Here is the input.
Amino acid sequence: MTKTFATGKDCKVKSKTDDFLVTITGGSFSYRENDLKKVEHYKIYSQNKFSIIYGDIINGNVTEIEDFYQRKK
Here is the structure.
């Protein structure tokens, strides 16, 4: 897998990682990024919609974030 970070209204790529191995088990996937093991959970809502759930630090507190993704029709 390659992780790409893009932002702005034109979705210009800001950074991109090298390829890395992803392990998928049950409702989660894990990978190593810069010597850190990351585990993120996912939910599949339909054939066209899913979400990824992960923790991030916002204002000094760990916050659970759920990003939703939907296939274009």
